[in-house]
Amino acid sequence: MERTNWKMILPLAAGIGFVLTGFWGLLLGPVAAVPIVSWRRQREGVPADDEDQRLAAFMAETLAASAPKKPAPREAARPSFEQMRVRAAQLGEEALFEAFAAARLALIENGRDAQAAAVAALLARRLAPGEPQAALRRRAAAQAIGLCLAAGQAGTAIGVFAEYVEERAELRLAPAQWEALGRALLGTGGFMQAAWALHAGALLAGDALGAHKRLIEVAGKAGEAGEAQVALKLYRTLLGKYPDSRYAQFARDNMKLEEKRLVTNRDKAGRG
Question: What is the Cα–Cα distance from 216 to 249, expressed in whole angstroms?
Fold first, then answer.
């Protein structure tokens, strides 16, 4: 009994499919050929051949796997925060309003658009200067920081915070957002701002002892990083704000260690 010549049929079907339908014909042609040929064999009374069927399936899979893949469309590169900041500073007055309106529209269409929120926060600093319009720009900043943190764009969140650092006490962030921002700042070596954010988040959450612990934690990290002066400042902040804290003695002991470290460093620098 004559076997079906799949080695000839399937490549031919792929070629015909490509001519008729283009790229996807390379896959659809062989896939369509298998049932058609099998149906004709059954109609002619030729019994199904298991070996032929396995060969047909194998070759169809092989052709599909070897077909050229369409390249995935490239997403436009997201600008860095510094690029956004520079562009926002360079816009003229008319372009400034247009850019702000575009950013706000993007946020209306997609309430989780972190990049649009960051742009809006940068532009709001120029569009709403002074105290009378402070609520608008602070709201924009808080929204941008929250969305950037949620989107995993901690660097942009830090950048927006740095732009608004003088108004940080007025930014309406949730405790978890202050905590996340503080951790991100801590990871970049921004110890003083990290301590402020972590401390603020704990206080907002009603965790007074946690607020003490955050100051101690960041002071310790600063000391480990060789920032003895920063560590001392944070220990003094704890003692000044919370003289009766359960961590007060710990802070005093560590201050002595940091002071010794400072003296040692000065002596080494003098001998060098």
Answer: 11
- The boundaries of the domain holding residue 25 are 6-66
Could you report the per-residue pLDDT of 212-269, keeping only the tens digit for each? 999 999 999 999 999 999 999 999 999 999 999 999 999 999 999 999 988 887 777 7
Look at residue 51 and tell me whether its pLDDT is greater than 80: no
* Distance, CA of 262 to CA of 259 (rounded, Å): 5
The structure tokens listed for 250 are 């710990």
Task: DSSP for 232-261, please give it.
Answer: HHHHHHHHHH-TT-TTHHHHHHHHHHHHHH
Q: Is 168 a member of any domain?
A: yes
Q: What angle do CA 31, 33, 36 make, to 5 degrees?
A: 120
With respect to residue 256, please indicate whether it lies within any of the assigned structural domains.
yes
Domain co-membership, 194 together with 221: yes
